[in-house]
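Attaching the record inline, Q. Sequence:
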Amino acid sequence: MERPSGRGAGTRTGDPMFPADQAPRCAGLDELDGHIAGCRACPRLVAWREEVARVKRAAFRDREYWGRPVPGFGPADAPLAVVGLAPAAHGANRTGRMFTGDTAGDFLFAALYEAGLASRAASGHTGDGLTLRGVRLTAPVHCAPPANRPTADERDTCRPWLSAELRLLAPGLRAVVALGGFGWQALLPAVRGTGRPLPRPRPVFGHGAHAVLPPGEGLPHPLHLLGSYHPSQRNTFTGRLTLPMLVGVLRRAAELAGLPTGG
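Structure, as predicted:
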């Protein structure tokens, strides 16, 4: 995927309301991705992502870091979306592609490949030829956060980007997989921001959880929300999340979205 430059995005440095002002105006995902890549709304995240890109990890000292917000990745007509947490400091913050360049991404892409949703089982860099089949990867926070922990204010400031992305995907979107409780909790108000009502009581996160969100104005189809544990090192190394577990959720989501699945 060609990296968006962010030029011409009308970035207003230091304005915490920049996403809320710009996101609803985006008419397409290319425009949205360009705005996201130029966002400087959260001072702590801006400072951290740029410091990481300057100092670098020893193993990547000769690599040029992306060091900016990371847009979503995948086709604009995807009927399935996968929502994570945030870019990793030396993963997507380095490569510029969501879930690319770290162990969590390696695990996710292996599962996507097994489920028939990715052309390759590994995602190393933006020029590796990998394509996604009917699925778009995104996150509720687009900048790498210190200690992989965005604040509630940072999550809320970034939410308009996710709502806009879901709105632009809405004509064909049929299912969303939330990776982890943070992704689940961030996704619900973002979905509501697209005009789709949420069921009451609110759906509760769990691995394999499945909720059906009702249609809304201009949204004639229900939306299936599925949960999976996040493919973090902590979860995968301890066996809390295994590859067959994640593949199972992705295959179920693909079926609900009307996509063919591998195996």
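The radius of gyration is 17 Å. The chain has nine helices and five strands.

More tomorrow.
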